[in-house]
Amino acid sequence: MNDPFTAELWRGIADVYDAILAHPFVTGLTDGSLPHESFAFYVVQDALFLRRYAQALATVASRAPDTAGTEMFARHAAGIVAVEMTLHESLMAELDIDPASVDAAEEAPTTLAYTSYLLAAVHGGSYGEGVGAVLPCYWIYWEVGKHLLGRGSPNPRYQRWIDTYGGDEYGNDVREVIAATDELSHDLSPFERERVRRHFRATSRYEWMFWDMGYRRQSWPL
Questions:
Q1: Is 105 inside a domain boundary?
Q2: Residue 97 carries which DSSP code?
């Protein structure tokens, strides 16, 4: 019996995932060494990212070939983003970040590049390609959250982040999308399967870049 398509996708990013777990942003969440300034920068950029990600999920929902896919991605566009934004709002209060300042914040180069890629993929490709592009943000955060849960953090803010992404509520949504990806894979042509793989790997790389951007507090060179 062949492995599910998503198992194949995950094997294709094993090097990226290992690099994510080794990144000082991620290791710094559990040992408490992540600089306060880097985490604050990341929280603002992630809030900006989530607005575009919600648009990408809504677009995927609109292109689903069945009502189940439409309902799931529309629900996730509202639900996952709402949960994550609630987390961000509480963190912003503790980090002394005025939520209104997010509206005036500029997207860092990686934030803009990642969201631009996502929106281009979901608008310009097939439904399957769109799913492949949005899946890593779901899946990698869940896997990282579960990995870090067993280690914990001395910093209560970082622990709350870990609890959110490693928790069952978030995990249930991720399982839904993984299952939907495996289901739609049966109808993909060889060409389209390769396109899904490419999108999945590209946005997985952007996930590493996003954490690196936060850690370095990336700015525009000009």
A1: yes
A2: -
